[in-house]
């Protein structure tokens, strides 16, 4: 399966424009943003867990990175409410569940194979303009709060992904609202203006150069 698999192109996915697709696990649905592979895949996905749903225990050979968008996501290590940012590195293993339901943005098989660092960050209280979440030579991950009307321009030298958590912004003639996703290729340009309520945006950058080389 290949979805938005040309990483040399700008890609925009608006939450309301794509359907939920049932996963192999009962009560678990997905909106696929990009994907290379079948059930074991390099993938960026919004996943919705119905109350009481779960996955059987599994190992993430390529790592798992997620941000909780709604509800409470759970595994053996604890409960992760809205705003939790988690990195489970390659070789990590867990059995995820959501007793009361949850929705997450999750990225699979996108780690440095040698990464063994587990990361848990609660982003809910952060109101600073820029909250670093993770950084290494391979990538940079942060959460930004843009004030209403703020203009933001940058060139994504190593590519970038932007996911709106609250508010909205405009890039050219396109408006990005809550849970909309934009992927810029290496060298892509962002010329954004935050909406009237500002914007809270999760940004991952610097990680797509190898995808274009490949």
TrEMBL record:
UniProt xrefs under InterPro entries: ChrR-like_cupin_dom (IPR025979), RmlC-like_jellyroll (IPR014710), RmlC_Cupin_sf (IPR011051)
Domain ChrR-like cupin: 9-111
Coiled-coil boundaries: none
Segment forming the signal sequence: none
Gene3D superfamilies, A to Z: Jelly Rolls
Short name of any one Pfam family annotated for the protein: Cupin_7
Protein name: Cupin domain-containing protein
Lineage: Bacteria, Pseudomonadati, Pseudomonadota, Alphaproteobacteria, Rhodobacterales
């Amino acid at each position: 399966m290949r979805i938005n698999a040309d990483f040399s192109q700008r890609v925009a996915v608006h939450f309301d424009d794509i359907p939920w697709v049932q996963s192999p696990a009962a009560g678990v649905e997905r909106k696929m943003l990009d994907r290379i592979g079948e059930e074991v895949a390099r993938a960026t996905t919004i996943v919705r867990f119905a109350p009481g749903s779960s996955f059987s225990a599994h190992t993430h050979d390529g790592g798992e990175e997620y941000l909780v968008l709604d509800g409470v996501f759970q595994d053996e290590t604890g409960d992760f409410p809205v705003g939790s940012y988690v990195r489970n590195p390659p070789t990590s293993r867990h059995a995820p569940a959501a007793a009361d339901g949850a929705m997450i943005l999750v990225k699979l098989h996108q780690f440095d194979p040698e990464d063994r660092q587990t990361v848990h960050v609660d982003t809910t209280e952060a109101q600073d303009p820029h909250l670093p979440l993770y950084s290494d030579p391979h990538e940079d991950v942060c959460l930004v709060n843009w004030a209403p009307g703020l203009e933001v321009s940058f060139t994504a030298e190593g590519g970038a992904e932007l996911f709106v958590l609250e508010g909205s912004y405009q890039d050219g003639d396109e408006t990005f609202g809550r849970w909309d996703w934009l992927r810029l290729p290496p060298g892509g340009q962002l010329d954004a203006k935050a909406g009237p309520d500002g914007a809270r945006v999760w940004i991952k950058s610097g990680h797509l150069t190898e995808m274009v080389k490949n």
